[in-house]
Amino acid sequence: MDQQVTQPVTKAGFSAPKTRTAGDRLILSLIHVWAWVFLAALILAFVVSVPLVSGSSVSFFTVRNSQNILVAITPILLLGLGQTFVIISGGIDLSVGWVMSWASVLSALALREAYNAGLPLPLAVAVGFGAAVVGGGMVGLFNGVIIAKLKVPPFIVTLGTSFIVRGMALLFSENTTVIGLPRGVRDYGNEALMYFVRGEGGGFYFLDKPELTGEMLRRMDRIITYPVLLTALVVAVAIFVLRRTKFGRHTYAIGGNREAAIRAGVPVERHIIMLYVMSAATAGIAGFLSMLRFTAGSAVIGDPLLLSSIAAVIIGGVSLFGGSGSVVGTIIGSLIIAVLTTGLVMLNVPSFYQFIVVGAVVILAVLIDQSRGIIKDRIETR
Amino acid sequence: MASEPVLSIRNLVKRFGGLVAVNDVSLDVFPGEVVALLGDNGAGKSTLIKCVSGVHSPTGGHIIFEGEEVHFSRPIEARDHGIETIYQDLALANNLDVPGNVFLGREVEKSYLGGLLRPLDNKFMLAQTASALASLHAEIPSLEVPIESLSGGQRQAVAIARAVYWQARLMIMDEPTNNLGVPEQHKVLDLIRALRDRGVPVILISHTLPEVFAVSDRLVVMHRGRKVTEKKVGDTNSEEIVQYMVGALDDTRTPAPVA
Ligand SMILES: Nc1ncnc2c1ncn2[C@@H]1O[C@H](COP(=O)(O)OP(=O)(O)O)[C@@H](O)[C@H]1O
Ligand SMILES: [Mg+2]
User: Fold this and answer.
1) For residue B56, which atom of ligand 1 is closest to its CA?
2) Which chain B residues touch A7 with a CB distance below 8 Å?
3) Which of A39, A135, A153, A227 has the fewest CB atoms within 10 Å of its CB?
4) Does some domain include residue A55?
5) How far apart are CA B106 and CA B83, in angstroms?
6) Based on the structure, what is the number of domains in chain A?
7) From CA A30, how far away is CA A5, in angstroms rounded?
8) Which atom of ligand 1 lies closest to the CA of B43?
9) pLDDT one-digit tens code per residue, B139-152
């Protein structure tokens, strides 16, 4: 092989991408943050229109309203969180709605049993939490194993389990609401970190609920209820895991190119199983929180939220083809849905219009997502 | 050849049902050489190297790597031995950035709170990626963008940088210049030379004869699953190789001319 003259190593530099004009950059960044812009515009529109329509004494931009919106998004957000991971990996989890119901029933039963067996309330609540997370997680394990090991499409597996879990939830709740929970449970689900009393003699209370009655009590707002607090913690963990950890990196890799992930040694099957366990466990937390909030377990609480949560994920920019999206996007998607719903209620718009509007926004979101690619291509290839 | 082969394939057979994709192929690869694997579509080249890289389990025969017989049942096992493969389809995650791909499956983490918090060490991985690319004299304008925005040649550079960073002891490249423009093809050939100059042996699968003659030391031609010849690059020419590729010449049928 001596005749082969070693050639000098030349610089293998590759051509730089085409330069973009300032206008291009503006368009590109706008289509990236459109959801933020849309949310801001929505809030502005309601701030202006609510007093006009419902009388000048009614305002959209209040502490109470902001808290109502937060309370309303917690279940959508929790269902959407696991879904965000699952969809980024290229899957889908249609079972989370009924898993939430199932967890709500299971945690109510477990909490009641534990309390009646003589456990102090905080421990009984902890037992309820454990039952919700483990009971939900088991469904996720079942989903994950069948999807990852037996290679059945996630759509079909999770559709199937959602029926199974629906049956189990109705069976365990004996087709009615699970009640008879200790009274103190209500506080866990509705009391807050902070309180704010508007107007005369009012004030701000941190970790200390003021003893109020009558008219003063009506002026009191709860700021960051415990369910909102727990949800915020779960969201913070989810953001960290997806953005900053190996687990998050692998989730994107599997959604982007599953074959590449396998060849690179990513434990793909185990990872997929964990994703469905996570998704079901967060749905379990949503069921637990709804049980605390209503002091009852309900077998029908979760199902209507499934589609809202998927809508939130899609509005937030998670591609159903997998490989892209973020938790922050899902938060914005949930906020858009909650702000829309709350605002339309305040405008006295009948509730069926809300569905129509949310549906339109979902389709709009996907259209913007698609045009993003097209616009990018146009700008880059001209 | 004085030194020990890095890789010895002995009488390898791979069947898919009734189809014999690789039929009794033996092949040696020595340190610091580029061996070209040639043949028509369906000749069994990809299948042969997939047996070496752990994608397929051979039906028969032996694979001896660095003096020891190996049986890989998964690609990661081959990678752990230092056999890095750049597949026809590249096997990169297009939605991840350059360091994300170079470190895929072997991410480096920091550790806080006694290992409770283990965020990715993106700074470290970025710096290592940049120096691996620099050692290949490959320039990519921005490493922190999803690699789908890179050109085909740049993606090849990413795949090769990954192999270099993880200290490949054998590099297998399946049609690395496929779907590339001519200037980009030249850059990939430069990358192959840079690899060889680092002492990493390369098995190169290619259809493009000029490029094969430009970088290879030895040529192996397959036809319908069998190895029909093996030549030093100086002892043959394009016309002869084409005859082998189409099956007109076959050393296993007619005795090879004495060199
Ligand atoms: N996974 C597989 N299953 C069944 N047949 C296969 C598989 N992979 C390759 N083959 C067959 O094996 C033969 C050799 O294919 P391949 O190794 O891809 O050829 P080459 O890379 O030389 O073009 C072809 O006939 C092909 O159809
Ligand atoms: Mg091939």
Assistant:
1) 1
2) 190, 193
3) A153
4) no
5) 15
6) 1
7) 54
8) 22
9) 888 999 999 988 88
